[in-house]
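Researcher: Re-running this chain for the archive, since the previous output was lost when a drive failed. Same request as before.
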Amino acid sequence: MTSGQIKKCGLLLALTIFSSFSYDLRAADQPQEFTDFSGLRTELLSKMGGASKRIWIVTDFLSDAEIVSSLFIAQYRKLDISALLGKDRATHILSRLNYLKQVNIPVSLRPKDFYTKYRSIILIDNQIFGLNAPLDHMSKSGRYSLELLTAEQAPDFESRFSEAAKLNNAPQMAPLPQVGRPRPNSRYYKGSESSASASQTSPKGASSRTSGTSNVHGSTGSPRHSQAASTPSNDDGAKGSSGYRYRSQGNKAPEGIPTKLPRTTLRQQLDQERERQRSSESTKTPAAD
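Model: Regenerated C-alpha cells:
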C-alpha cells in the first residue's frame, strides 16, 4: 500500500469518526417526545433508578405516586433528595406534599422566576432535564417533551435551587374532612361544649331527631327515627347554619303494601304446614278390604 493510499484511508476514517460523533451530539440535543404520561413516567423512572448521587425535582404539581415512591427508594439508598413544588397547587388534595414531609424529604415552594420556560426540571446526578408539563398523572397534555439541558446551566441551577430549598417555606396541608361525623358548629351537635346550648336552642322534637341521627354513628337512639331520616332539608329557620335537619316525611304507605313484619315468617309457615301434613298422614288408618 502506497503512502497516498494510506493518507486516503486515514482521511476516510477521520471523516467517519467525526460524522458519527456529530450525529450523536445532534441526537442528544433533540428532546424526547411522548404522547402519553405513562411513557414519560417510564423514562423518568429509568433515569431516576440509575442515579447514584442526587435527585432534585422542580415541578408545578406533583401527584404521581410512582415518581414519589421512586424518590423514597432513592432516599433509602442514601441519595440527596429534594423537591420544589409550585405554590398554586402545593396544597391541592392530590398533592404529595404531606407524604414528602412524612418521609423526611425536604420540600419548599418554587420561586416564580425559577426557569419559567419549563413546567418541571429534574436534576439527576449531573444531568438536568427540562419538561414542558407538571408531574401530574392526571395530565392530558397529549405531547410531552423531555429535553436534556446543557452542562453549562448546571452551576446556576444548583445555586438557585439551593437558595430556594433553604427557605423551607412549604405550607401545611389542611386535614381531609371527616365524612359521616357531626359538625361541631351544627345546632344538633351533641358535644361536651355545645350540648347545653343545643338543647336550649333546638325546637320541640329536636332531641328525638338528634337521637335518630346519632344512631347512625354508633350511639344509642331510636331506630324508628334513623330509618325515617332519609331526606335532608336545610330550612332550619336560622340562616348560616351548617347543619341539616333530618325529619320524617310522614307519608302514608300505598294501599296493599304491608308496613309491619308478620309475626311468623314464610319459612315458619311452610314448616308448620309440613308438620301438619305429617301428623295427618300418621293418624290416618288403613282402609278395610
